[in-house]
Amino acid sequence: MKETFMIRRLLCFAAMVLLAGYTAGCNRKPQGGKDTGKQVVLQLRPGPDNPRNSEGDFITLKDGRILFIFSRFTGGGGDFSTAHLAAVYSEDQGRSWSGEPVVILSNEGEMNIMSVSLLRLDNGSIALFYLRKNSTSDCIPFMRISTDEAKSWGDAV
């Protein structure tokens, strides 16, 4: 029963991440239209060693910083390419962000790890949910817990 609840909760978070990604794209200035007043403050551009960034989530840490963890692809731009989880931080409520992303979790899947969701638990810990993709037919949700404000993560469950 507990596993079913966790799986349902994880699927709900994954759906929220997808929806958040869709609505973020809706905030752009309409073509030929008026400026919406919104400003891009974080742009993680792909590069030769990083052809794609995707599926991320934000959480506010107890010291007030905002943490953004996302999938950082390094082995190609497709869903089956190699990827790890990386992070950037903001110390000013999201107006600016740290420089080069830092690796939060190295790739532990045979293909990649991706689709991040973060959740502050009632006990103050942070839960990190993600998918470990080993093959086109083997993509399993996992969770890790941090008790030190995302400085380290417990074992995958």
Textual characterization of the structure:
The protein is built from one helix and seven strands. With 157 residues, the protein is an alpha+beta fold. Strand 6 (126-135) and strand 7 (138-146) form a beta hairpin. The longest helix is centred in the N-terminal third of the chain and has 24 residues, at 2-25. The protein is globular. The two termini are 16 Å apart. Mean pLDDT is 84; it is low at 10-30.
If helices are DSSP runs of H or I spanning 4 or more residues, what is the number of helices?
A: 1
Overall strand count: 7
Shape: globular
Helix/sheet category: alpha+beta
Instruction: From the alpha carbons, calculate the radius of gyration and give it in angstroms.
Output: 16 Å
- Going across the biggest sheet, name each strand in turn: 1-2-3-4
Give the proportion of residues in helices.
10-25%
What value does the average pLDDT take?
Answer: 84
SSE string, helices as H and strands as E? HEEEEEEE
Please mark out the parts with pLDDT under 50 across 5 or more consecutive residues, or reply none.
10-30
For the termini, the CA-CA separation is 16 Å
Largest sheet: 4 strands, antiparallel
Q: List the quaternary state of the chains.
A: single chain
